[in-house]
Design goal:
about 240 residues, Arc Repressor Mutant, subunit A, 2 domains, five-stranded parallel sheet, about 15% strand
Length: about 240
């Protein structure tokens, strides 16, 4: 059981080398543009990226992790997983935040805590040292705070979206156009009703749009467009 972590009676941790797949950071959007100032502002320590839903906070954090982060990376979506689930994935049958902090410190993880609701949710998980990125819709008063405002098109985004769109299979392209008129955040049933297709087929297509960074997953089976991407999809539809 070389990849299993065990808490000893003394509270020490021995660890294998692998991060469980579900807690590895996903790849950043393939056609990431802009945010040069924000990327340059992130420093070691705790950085909170805050802004409205769909502003691109997670994409920014993932881009920084891939291009500028160091060591092993641990990704925790706080909207989907609690600390106990993370620790159990490492073979630690506990939900003690102190054990989580010790795990992060011992392994020297660069940590991304995504979709935080409050400082009270985040503070117990922060190690004494190291680099931690946190995304939230609100400022948390922790470490360095960077507001992620609406992305403006500096002339690079439009051509990238055009290129991404023409590469889509027909089902995904049709769904991209149609769902641009859906509510701000929508689920699989809404998308299926709009498209007039079975939910199972639509769910696969939505996942593909997320992988291509044309759609953002904002919760369990919930999706939304970034405002600029929605405008692009609507322009194509019209």
């Amino acid at each position: 059981m070389s990849d299993v972590l065990a808490v000893q009676a003394t509270g020490s941790i021995r660890a294998g080398n692998d991060v469980p797949p579900r807690f590895r950071p996903p790849a950043p959007p393939r056609h990431f543009v802009g945010r040069d100032a924000e990327l340059a502002s992130i420093r070691p320590g705790v950085t909170v990226l805050h802004g409205d839903a769909g502003a691109g906070k997670t994409a920014l954090a993932l881009k920084w992790l891939r291009d500028r982060g160091s060591g092993s990376r641990l990704y925790v979506d706080l909207a989907a997983h609690d600390v106990g689930r993370v620790l159990r994935a490492f073979g630690l049958p506990t939900d003690d935040p102190a054990v989580f902090r010790a795990l992060v410190a011992r392994r020297q993880f660069t940590l991304l805590l995504d979709n935080a609701d409050s400082a009270e949710q985040v503070t117990p998980l922060l190690p004494a040292s190291g680099t931690v990125l946190v995304t939230s819709r609100v400022p948390l008063g922790l470490g360095q705070e960077i507001r992620v405002g609406p992305l403006t098109d500096d002339g690079r985004l439009g051509p990238l979206l055009d290129r991404s769109y023409v590469e889509l299979p027909e089902r995904q392209a049709r769904l991209y156009r149609l769902c641009a008129w859906a509510p701000d955040a929508f689920g699989v049933p809404v998308a299926a009703a709009i498209a007039g297709e079975p939910e199972c087929d639509v769910e696969d297509a939505l996942d593909d749009l997320v992988e291509k960074a044309l759609l953002t997953e904002v919760g369990d089976d919930a999706f939304r467009f970034h405002d600029l991407v929605r405008a692009h999809a609507r322009a194509i539809a019209e």
